[in-house]
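Possible race condition, two jobs.
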Amino acid sequence: MDVLSTQGMPGQFATGDGFDLTGECINVSSTEELSDPELLARLSAPFAPYLEEELPRRPASAGYDVVGLNITYRRQLPLALHMARVIKDRLPDALLLVGGTEASDVWKYLEDKRRFFDVLAAVDVCVIGEGKSAFCDILRARARGELPQPSANVQLNPRRGGTGRRELLSLCYENTTTIPTPAYDKLPSHLYLSPHRFVYYSPSRGC
């Protein structure tokens, strides 16, 4: 990883066998740094052959109408933000959707909620909190040729009609006993952008 880091910011990885970034290269609690496309691009440079060439090739050639990114861990955030910019640049007409625990934490801990989409500038829609029903609602709206409407757990980028105001976001915690078990066998795994097939599994709320 130290050798790989020479393609971006030498010594940027905190450990020799992981993707954690050191605090010296980026402060992941800084709105200014997370909003800096040049810094994000430099930190992502070790993975540029995949992120900027291989990753967007399939959705661009297939004409994806919706692309979703799940940001689960804090260490994924800088790379995911750059990934979002690359995808939006290659597929400007696609609806770029982001969710996941780290995306929710950005909203939760951001003092000035109006700056949320400064950080997620390339993102069209963000699901904050639980996304089971919200994700389905977004896809149904897209299937009708419409933009998602502001609803529980959903924030729209201002360029898509959102406001970014905290008081307009309602959070919904669903009754998990009423939600059907996911039919994983029906998921179109060939459409997933991950190099390896995997399934998120959460046995309960929280960790």
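Job #2 (started ~2 s after job #1):
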Amino acid sequence: MTEIFRTRLASALFVASGSLVALVFVLSSTVGGDPIGVLVHFGGMTITSGHSRSPALLLSIYLNNLSVLLLASLGPIAFTFLVAWSSRLIGGSERNVCGEDEGRLHHQTLQRLSATFLLYGSPALVMIVNGGALGLFLTATGLYGGVEGIQTFVIGVAPHGAVEIPAIVLGAALGFSVADDLMDPLASGDPKEAQERAKNLILDGKTQGSVLILAALLVLAAIIEVYPVF
């Protein structure tokens, strides 16, 4: 995947998830349901208007966003180390796979599917969950608060979201890039090679620089969120 494609994929997952959750929420409310009703409404209002503007809150918000960024960008590396560690525990089980072509093909297919899920799962999940949460709260405030609710939500989220959301999207794009680098050895059943590549990625200046820049953007986003300019 190219860098542009990875960024577009992360953005598409974010938007699609938010849109789908919003649609489901609207439809469920239309037919008389109340999925999480007042709880979501008051939760959204609290998020957008109830800050105490304390340094402790700023630190809490930043650490939460930083954990999301690290899961999106470096999650594939963590899963690679986990697979390498588990492979040492079970010690060469892949050598006991049936030698017949059909059994070997089945085993290789499962390996590739497992590697795809583990490596690309964390950045994709971060985008889906965050997009869904944004769509949920935006729709809930619109349904329960009307135009005023939407205005409150936008005023509360847009300033810091303009910095935070692109940082998380770029973090997920970085995660997809890391997953691309680790895919071949992990899918081919060579966890030792995958672990070496993972170590090299951690020590790579480009990876470190990208994460540090995105982490700095999240500091700015947290400051804007806790100490809004308007």
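Residues 136 and 164 are 18 Å apart (CA to CA).
Logs attached separately.
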